[in-house]
Amino acid sequence: MQTQEIELPPRFRARLAGYSFEKDTLGQSASTVFLLKAEGRARLVLKQERAGPFAELAQEAARLEWLAAKGLPCPRILAHEVHAERNWLMMEAVEGVDLASSPLAPGQRITILAEALRRLHQLDIADCPFDRRLETSIAMAKARMEAGLVDEADFDDVRLGRTAKDLFGELGARRPRDEQLVVTHGDACLPNIIVQDDGVAGFIDCGRLGVADLHQDIALACRSIAYNLGNDWVQPFLNLCGLPNPDPEKLFYYCLLDEFF
């Protein structure tokens, strides 16, 4: 695919001339993601989405800029704008391979994931301007449900066949009484951590980064490990995180909450 096949913002066209476009099919982002390559030039990532009240790219750009300012590796923002009723975000790609695709042994991958999340969770929540506490996230989940944006066909196997309205009722009934607040990635799955050699190269897909319960990240990381590496690697990961006995109700709850995003 070439640039002329996509209605790019005018100021993007010269910058991206000569790049080939490959649509990313690995990630689960609500936006359309293209991987851009050109001989002798930096690899880029281009995201676009329909502009509107549920658009997320401006939020992702702000979070990536904040994360970079804190010294954590992530894509560098090159440009962000609205064109043809769509939001566009251009970034430099993080060099390396995601942890789901990495050829490293499972033990190495869970060690890298645990270290990446530990670095993120050690950031001072007082310095983080992004709120993903339950009050905020549940309100967002309700708004998305009422707008018809919850994909009931994509629920986890344990919830397939149920409705978003049914699940939202369960969100209210099972809401945890307390939150162990840290700066969370928000979607801490293996594909969202890039590794180079045997270390963390960068965090990607950070549109849901913000202050939330530690279990927000732990729950989705455990689910991703079970899916990509097998259940046998979940407990070793928890041990590496210093959380050998996480709250099982919270692990369940944050996977339930994720069905709305």
TrEMBL record:
Gene3D superfamilies: 3.90.1200.10, Phosphorylase Kinase, domain 1
EC category: transferase
Source organism, top-level taxon: Bacteria
Residue span, Aminoglycoside phosphotransferase domain: 26-240
Signal peptide: none
Pfam family of the protein (one): APH
Keywords: Antibiotic resistance, ATP-binding, Kinase, Nucleotide-binding, Transferase
Catalytic activity: kanamycin A + ATP = kanamycin 3'-phosphate + ADP + H(+)
InterPro entries according to UniProt: AGP_Transferase, Aminoglycoside_PTrfase, Kan/Strep_kinase, Kinase-like_dom_sf
The enzyme's E.C. designation: 2.7.1.95
NCBIfam families named in the record: APH_3p
Family of this protein: Belongs to the aminoglycoside phosphotransferase family.
Name this polypeptide is given: Aminoglycoside 3'-phosphotransferase
